Here is the input.
Amino acid sequence: MAAAETSAARRDTVPRLLAFNAEHYADKPAYREKEFGIWQSWSWAEAKSEINKLATGLLTIGLKPGDHVALLGRNRPYFYWAMIAAQTNGAVPVPVYQDSVADEIAYVLAHCSARYIFAEDQEQVDKILEIQDKLPELKAVIYLDEGGMRKYDRSQLHNYRDIQAAGENASQKQKADLAKREAAQTGADTCAMLYTSGTTGQPKGVVLSNDNIIKTAEASSDFDKLNVNDSVLAYLPMAWVGDFIFSMGQAMWTGFCVCCPESNETMQHDLREIGPSYFFAPPRYFEGVLTNVMIRMEDAGKFKQSLFHYFMDHAQKVGGNILDGRAVSTSDKLKYWLGRLLIYGPLLNTLGLSKVRVGYTAGEAIGPEIFSFYRSLGINLKQLYGQTEASVFITQQPDGQVRSDTVGVPSPGVEIKISDNGEVFYRSPGTFVEYYKNPKSTKETKDKQGWVATGDAGFMEKDTGHLRIIDRAKDVGKMKDGRLFAPKYVENKLKFYPTILEAVVFGADRDMCTAFINIDLQAVGNWAERNNIAYSSYQELAGNPDVYKMVQNHINEINRDVAADEMLSGCQIHRFLILHKELDADDGELTRTRKVRRRVIQDKFKELIDALYGGKSEIFTKTQVTYEDGTSGSISATLRIEDAVISSAQETAA
Here is the structure.
């Protein structure tokens, strides 16, 4: 018993987990990165050496316990090492979304009073220099790639490798001071601060302790039997809590390998090369990949198409049962084996998912057809429900109990309750400490007993214990006639169609529901090419009458589906328009995690909403936009407004 307690004590902070892994898994791969087309690898022992040099080097340039250390760049081992090096010093890592514009970065860095910033390259350094006057606490910027910065003022700029060299050559006293800092830390100390997406206002800094991250990582890893031989592809933003728990928490707890792609553009290719056994992606990723598969099949020959559809139909029939270990006839197993040889196996290899043992999706609801498609191929894809404030995990789906219409059962150690108004509450070892510098919001979100308000509406199934999420609690309202209004429920159904990228539904306190639609340029563009429809831009394609007809048919189908649900039948869409531009995070319409900012959209496009409810058949609009280079401009268009077919429950049943 004493030995077990000693072992557990050694693993209550991230630096101690690093020491444990370097001792027990010294030669096992800890990190991989593809750079200049070549995969590089570091063992746990090598990673510990790199981190120790960096941690000591940070001490030599004045990093103190409690300082906030921001990180700005793509997923790279060097940045994960920087987070651990900061933690070793008792400092707090604060990853920032790399695609944020300077003003967004300025808010986060000023709010946390960042004293040290790790920046990947010239682009990220330039963002910091642009807002430097707003960061009075800033002491040093540490860059990784120095291309283009030869003539920059070096008074506050430091090369990453120079910091490591300083650490390697540090005095014995400095190394001893670092050891004291590391020894002084406990599970209650802050592990990281991660900012929320900010759908309703400015992002909030979520303070997460070592206990929050490590206990959650332990429970969730045990749930799915993750171990040192697993690997994960780290490609989602480091500022997102999901990447932090997968690539830091679970990786450090289990000792599995974190693999970083060369760039966002090469991610799919790198995924195929690395073949991870553990994989997470939002529904949008799985939808996009399936769209690409279907586009390719539509361009294939008749024989290949018929072979694909024949075996995929069989996979949809028995694939899920085989995956879950349910009884399947010998002939069906044989046909599925043949399908794996000819279709499923080659497809999985192309997608880079042939070795996935556990896959997860979360963030939004995933379409049942899409969910079923991947599981029918033999991918153990599951849904989870989580939040930054929970260190991600609130619910998970156990093997054999995976369904598309629920988000699973409470994760180990998590308690869930549903309030009288349907809002979901939880408490768990992963529950955040506080919102930084925001005691008011902390008190509103977490009560004295540790129960956290999720802001989501849902209910627990009595017979299965599974949680079902309906919508955001603040978005659930009433129609003018008193019927329930749940926009996300309808929006998610619309986004199940590959041709619809985004949808925003309106209707609270109104007599009917209306919608904005964003088409998927790739899917609709391919459809247009096959049908000899010429177009020169997104705007032109979005206004095409045939595209409107296609979207109208999708909405009519959704209305028939919604009409069958007595509780939500009032959410059928009466009128819609296709927006002349894609909703964009740079324009403030989406968060950096691509969640819709409803209030921004309602204010920005008020005249369009008024036209939908005013009976107009078209409206001219002019909209300000932000281009990729940061400059601003405007686009204008005359938008059509179309009616949809409203269904009755009787018609749906018939």
Summary: The first helix runs from residue 2 to 9. Residues 1-8 have pLDDT under 50 and may be disordered. The chain has 23 helices and 30 strands. The radius of gyration is 26 Å.
